Amino acid sequence: MSTDSNVNNTAKAQTGVSRRNLIELIGAGGAAIGFSTAAGLAGAGPAFAAPAVSRNNLEPGDTSNGADNFYTSDQVTVKKISFRNKYEMKVVGNLFVPNALNRGTTHPALVVGHPMGAVKEQSANLYATKMAEQGYVTLSFDLSFWGESAGKPGNSVLPDVYAEDFSTAVDYLRAQPFVDKERVGAIGICGSGSFVISAAKLDPRIKAIATVSMYDMGAANRDGLIKSVTLEQRKTMIAQAAAQRDVEFAGGAIEYTGGTPDELTADSTAVDREFYDF
């Protein structure tokens, strides 16, 4: 997703973006937000708040086949980027830079992580675009094993590697000459909300954290929704996973759990159908 427009919409500049403003701006997605900070990103500098219009006339939530209603902005330039984490794995992302940004000085920046089981195009790009409209340099990326980033088998769940990906994204932002190294924060959506906290515990360069619908994926897998998984069911799942290791070591097919279905059937649920269409 990119905008190659040369139009620079010079909107009304604000005096700055405080930490409270950051919470309110991220809340545009309609999700509950938690926020913690060390030094914060106060004094973000001029922000460009005029809303951009969608690139088409589809209604939000339209899930008809072939829908092309991802939000884009004429105020923001998007560039595909990649970098390698400390495990020498290629991580692919998008860099969002406000068109009106003065590249002769430095500005605050944000890393944006996608939900568990998603890719950067699902939610992360939207938040990155909206925050770039407010004057931030933003970076969305695919976690390792997901989307365009490296890692086999795909869809693997390795939270330690995910935390490293966030820190490597911070590496990339701090290396940009127009980014203020001491004002880099992160937004974690859903499962990434917990992953980014793990990263920030080890990486003091992440000065502020905002979470959107933060989810503890470990607890969700252990206990199920509303703690619906019993101890015996958990033991059964562990036994099945252990048996599957033997199958795969012997060359058997990799078994994936959960996620969006590859095809729809007469028995597919409404959630299956919506996820598949999206």
Features:
7 helices; 278 residues; alpha/beta; seven-stranded mixed sheet; 18% strand; 7 strands
Note the topology:
Elements: H1 19-26, E1 33-37, E2 76-84, E3 90-98, E4 107-113, H2 124-133, E5 137-141, H3 159-174, E6 179-189, H4 191-202, E7 208-212, H5 217-223, H6 231-249, H7 270-277
Parallel strand pairs: 4-5, 4-6, 6-7
Antiparallel strand pairs: 1-7, 2-3, 3-5
Helix pairs in contact: 3-4
Number of strands: 7
Number of DSSP helical runs? 7
Low-confidence stretches: 1-39, 45-55
What's the mean pLDDT score?
Answer: 81
Residues in helix, %:
25-40%
Q: Major sheet: order of its strands?
A: 1-7-6-4-5-3-2
Please provide a brief summary of the model:
This protein is an alpha/beta fold and 278 residues long.
Q: How would you describe the overall organization of this protein?
A:
The chain is an alpha/beta fold and 278 residues long. Helix content is 29%, strand content 18%. The chain has 7 helices and 7 strands. It has helices spanning 19-26, 124-133, 159-174, 191-202, 217-223, 231-249, 270-277, and strands at residues 33-37, 76-84, 90-98, 107-113, 137-141, 179-189, 208-212. A 7-stranded mixed sheet has the order 1-7-6-4-5-3-2, with helices on both faces. It starts with 18 loop residues before the first helix and ends with a helix.
